[in-house]
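tool_call: predict_structure(chain=1)
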Amino acid sequence: MSRTHLTQLLATAGLVACLVGAAFMTGPIRTQRQDLQIERPEGASASIAGQEAWTTLLGAGTGAFRGLIADYLWYRANALKDQGKYHEANALSEAITQLQPSFAQVWVFNAWNMAYNISVATFTPEERWNWVQKGVALLRDKGIPQNPRSVVLYKELNWIFFHKIGESSDDQHWYYKRMLAEEWQEVLGRPAPGETMPQAYERFKPIVEAPEALAAVLAGNPVVAELLQELSRLGFQPDQTLLRQIGRIRMFSGTIDTLVVGVDLSRVPGIDVNLVRLLADQKYAQAWRPLLAYLRKQVLIHHYHMDPAFMLRMMTPEAEGGFAFGALDWRHPGVHSLYWSALGVEVAKGTRSKAKVDIINTYRGVIHSMQKLARTGRVSYYPIEDRLMYRPDSTFIESYIRALERADTDLQRADWLGLSSEQYESGYENFLLDAIVHTYIDGKVETAQQYYKILRDRFGNRPDRVGKYIVPLDDLVLEQFVPNWDRLEVAAAIIDALIVRSISEGLAEDRPEVFLRFIGVAQQIHQKMQEKSLVIPTAERPRLAFLDFPVVVAQTYAGVMQEPFDLVLRGHIWRNTPVDLQQATYDTIKPLITAHAQQVGLDVNRVLPEPPGMADYRKKNPPSRETPPKPEPDTTIERR
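tool_result:
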């Protein structure tokens, strides 16, 4: 055999050996990719660069050097960020996502840079919100679809919703919250006040059950075809624009505020009056329901890259394979942080190497989101006033406890290295105290007692807590407002504050039951102070006594209503006020509110309609001889 033939034979044998070795390495390499969370979804291209201009610039021959180029660009991007050149760093990091779309950290870097660095370098709330949205969209619309098993991307997206939008570190955070509430009220509508989890489940279920194709919607309801023809004639297609336009019309109609102001929808920016008329046409009343369910499903999937079935599972009882998180209001940033962290947990459970995923922080996102929803989960958004309010929602307390138990069960499995949910307990004691107060104020005294028992059993025997949790429930609740409530001046301040809260969190938010709960707690303190009062025959009244409680409530209410805040909001509060309180305060507050209404061009009879029975009330309660001071017009009032 010649030397040439021997060389060829050895080369062939070497090639075969390499191919066999490569075949054996396929499994370990796949496992390693799973461990590193860089598996690509089926059908995804090996690189986004093939769809971008970087393919032209770098050419098809850069494959072997792509990693080196990405490393250099990554170094430059970090250097530019450190120099405060955020836009330049953003451009380079975008190039890296095109070269190395499986490099999770660059997606995180780029999204953080947009949401946190570039946003605060702009000058208007609109610009800031635009960059925060870009950070969200980068992870949600591109990063996660390209890297669906990268847990860190879910964790970072959860954090932007939870912290950047949901917390108060950014001085424009209320603007972000209002924009998010407006967007999602247009997309999914406004939940009914006090909606329960079964009601939320039933309201959302038609979206999941909606057909994937528009043809199936038309086949199920022929009137929908006629409706679509009318919409087409008006220039609308069955897409996100139509959905949000319908949501906007509904958002600005049929509320107390529209009664106060007398809103003309034709003058509201962004509303098509022809669509308003079409929505009012009873001929299509039954056609809107299936069409809206279809539109919402399509927008959730294709625009927001969210899974409606998983969203429904979050509101499904555990017994039916759901999470039972509660009646989720998607206008709240905490619900979005909960969605992405819960989805991240599901992804983490399917990751092979539990030691190499950020499961603790991912679960922490779920638990912290539940805490936030328990403390602020009830959303009230009033677009006419441009007012957004969050209120505690005691229904999420049980969900929070279940989330802790679920985390403990998952983390104590052998393949999770024996981790424990105790790592989340640092805020549990304070959370239970909040839960006791909120359930007590909601009138759920037995539930408050149950949480008090959990608090006592879990924390009461600790050396620094001995004797702390042995007082009666009523006293514990009162102590949470102010520890020294039994001092006269402190009690007076607490009673006043509770009455104000009954107005701001009850009447202003269409929740008369909350108004009564706060009034009830204030009355308890008032009664306890009256029992301690000292009777002195020569004194005008007992030395440590207050005025009668109804008088105290009327005085505080009248003071609040004469404050120079939005007249629309004051009209809103007035229409929710009990008639007896309206009668007791109407003549007092009307002069000043009349002056304010004249300044902004509102009809005072819309803002403050006279309560029924005023003639009889005046006969039984004649005004005092003292002439009240003439109100001075307030020049700071502006109509929004």
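agent: The longest strand covers residues 378-382. Proceeding to next step.
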